[in-house]
Specification:
The strands form three sheets. Strands 1, 2, 5, 6, 7, 8 and 9 form a seven-stranded antiparallel β-sheet that branches. Strands 3-4 form a two-stranded antiparallel ribbon. It has a two-stranded antiparallel sheet with strand order 10-11. It has one domain (13-188): Pnp Oxidase, Chain A. The chain is α+β, with helices and mostly antiparallel strands. It has helices at 5-11, 30-39, 43-49, 94-106; strands at residues 22-27, 50-52, 59-67, 70-79, 83-88, 127-134, 140-154, 169-175, 178-181, 194-196, 201-203.
């Protein structure tokens, strides 16, 4: 029988992964931590105020090679798209101020130079971002780590007299060099590390 709900249910051994069971953890550098302190927030605040995010996609470009009137596609270079998250804003605007300051650290908002910000080079303004997905029982069953990430876009916020019964949110788009992830199968206990490439060795 092609349409058998019982057989389909058996395939969902854990009841299906839920997209609302996640959290974001930012591991700040010394300078980024200083910006957090200036804005009156901690990394933990972002973890609780992040409303939505994404699992990053794995994309490889292709190289079309003509051969005898046909196109043969071979694998090309890996591409990493922007990673985006949505964040609630409280009335103290601490988190939004932090992201605006972080963005300003890379390039002044009111000058045409960023020389003063670059004393430590790129390492001053990049960090690691972890995306953790949880089971319904609170175990981590999937992890992603974004390496050398920074927020290149802090969105505008629409204001309206008709915007009743809702919290203000804004979007942050991140650039990053690459990600690592956990390839271990979830078997009833939290996954604690990601996999490095090459070699499939777990990284804590």
């Amino acid at each position: 029988m092609p349409f058998n709900a019982t057989q389909f249910r058996k395939q969902l051994k854990h009841g299906g992964a839920r997209p609302n069971m996640f959290e974001i953890i930012i591991t700040p550098t010394t300078k980024i931590a200083a910006l957090m302190s200036q804005s009156g927030i901690a990394a933990n605040d972002i973890k609780f105020m992040a409303n939505s995010a994404q699992m990053p996609g794995a994309i490889i470009g292709t190289v079309p090679v003509p051969y005898f009137g046909r196109i043969v596609n071979v694998s090309g270079d890996r591409v990493y798209e922007d990673w985006q998250c949505s964040i609630y804003s409280d009335e103290d605007f601490g988190i939004r101020n932090f992201f605006e300051k972080w963005n300003d650290m890379m390039s002044f908002v009111n000058y045409d130079t960023n020389q003063e910000h670059m004393e430590g080079g790129v390492n001053d303004y990049v960090c690691e971002v972890d995306i953790l997905h949880y089971t319904k029982t609170g175990d981590v069953d999937k992890r992603y780590k974004l390496h050398n990430a920074f927020p290149h876009y802090v969105s505008q916020v629409e204001l309206s007299w008709q915007a009743n019964d809702q919290l203000m949110m804004f979007e942050v788009a991140w650039k990053y060099d690459y990600f690592t992830t956990s390839w271990a199968k979830y078997e009833g206990k939290s996954i604690t590390g990601v996999t490095t490439n090459p070699g499939n060795k777990p990284q804590q």
